[in-house]
Amino acid sequence: MNFKAITITDIAKALNISASTVSKALSDSYEISAKTKQIVLTYAREHNYRPNPNAISLKFGSSLSIGIVIPSIQNQFFAQIIDGIESVAHDEGFTVIIAQTHESYDMEVKSIQQLTHRAIDGLLISQSSETFDVSHLENLRSKGLPMVFFDRVSDQIDTHKVVTDNFQGALNATQHLFDNNYSRIAHITGPEGLSITTDRLNGYRQAHAQNKTQVTADYIKHCSYTNNNVAEIERAVHELLQLPDRPDAIFATSDTITSTVLLLLNKLGIKIPGQMAVIGFTNSSFAAVLAPPLTSVFQPGFLMGQKAARLLLSLVKSKKAVTEFETVVLPMQLIVRESSSVSIQV
């Protein structure tokens, strides 16, 4: 099933005028009246028309390229996902075009427009933290663009999705801290509204319920995932440390949050895990070489990329409309290291 960008012929048929008239209107020819130009330009804009640089490829029904939209390539997790996607796409003869949103909804919309103007055969996307309105994606999906979500997904669009078991990963991490005698567990997580934030927070809450411990609202801090969020994370840590009954453990849920927490605690002279245990969500290689080595929830980024790419290419190659979709949930692994060693209660 191939997604085809709207053509001059499509516009001509829709407006019941000649393709020549459409072409001249789009090129602002003096031969076309202002009224007709406005009608053509309005229709073209509303239906995502752009001059197609891949016209030769489209002649054969495919550009042999897929688009990838991610929040940031600086995030090692997304870099691993891209590696997984490319390993599958290249074997199948497809090239990949990568766009970053930098956690911006507007950038996401613009990036997807640019990708579809290049006549991609399909789209792989992990939403930005600002994306709540998915009408730009629903519009493309309704026109036949094969689309697969990964990591950060939308429940509003019916298609294949690949996620990790964020709920169970967070539950296991929090339970591990309870098992090691920590009871005042803070949770520094991502922005509200993201599917991964919700699932991880629910896992954290479930661990408290299992241990018959009340969740302390002041222990939960939401931080953005932007590249300039260090001050925001530092403020969250300072607020936690100033609480009358300050936490004895911090469970962080991204590479940036985890690394910033560690740096700040070390700067303040707070011993890990003697005075504060730390667990992170991270795929970074630095976790094992820190002092002390960091206990972390490992996410299978490379495998996620492979799964998502295979699902997308199955849609692209399908000769009939696909109406049944699956959500693949990949397990996470808690890798226990010294940063969460047993707390000695006195």
TrEMBL record:
Quote the protein name from its UniProt record. Answer: LacI family transcriptional regulator
Q: What Pfam families is this protein classified in?
A: LacI (PF00356), Peripla_BP_3 (PF13377)
**Where is each HTH lacI-type domain found?**
6-60
State whether keyword Acetylation applies: no
Question: Sorted alphabetically, which keywords does the UniProt record give?
Answer: DNA-binding, Transcription, Transcription regulation
**Which species is the source of this protein?**
Mucilaginibacter aquariorum
Source species, domain of life: Bacteria
**Which SMART domains does this UniProt record tie to the protein?**
HTH_LACI
